[in-house]
Amino acid sequence: MSDQPTIAALRMGNQFAFEAVFHAFHPKVYGYILQKTHSAYMAEEVVQLAFIKLWHYRESLDPEVSLSAQVFRVAKTTLIDQLRKEAVRSRLLTQGEAKGTAQSESPTENALKRLEEKELAERIQQVVRSMPGVRQRVFAMSRFKGMSYKEIADALSISVRTVENHIAQALKQLRHNIPFF
Length: 181
Description:
By secondary structure, the protein is mostly helical. The protein contains 8 helices and no strands. Belongs to the sigma-70 factor family. ECF subfamily.
């Protein structure tokens, strides 16, 4: 089933289509956000903000992309925005209450950090999987298994210089595909 008619109706400002989308996706999006935050209050806030954003930016919805993917992308970016705001708010409160006292990270900061680390790890795995076979193996052996260049060269019957070249190319590919890598 195509989402194009629903997306077209949303883009034209059809409130009935929006209500249908809200009722169809609210439980799924709420569950996703609750799983990430472990806070019913924050999950409800984020879901409400996500659907407000979806309505506000409805004209930019892409009819060629599944509605589910677009709804969850809005929810995910809304969650990240809220976690950042909460982390800043928490940091400012901590600084104001205990000037000069070392404080541990708040649960919100921890959740944001875990989410960002997980997304980065997934993106790295995706880029590594797109590498040519030998480069992929060399990189995995070096970075994921902790093997030295010499050990990799011996295991694959290639020269250490070839291992170095594969690692250099892999890192170049990662930097090209992942900003700030």
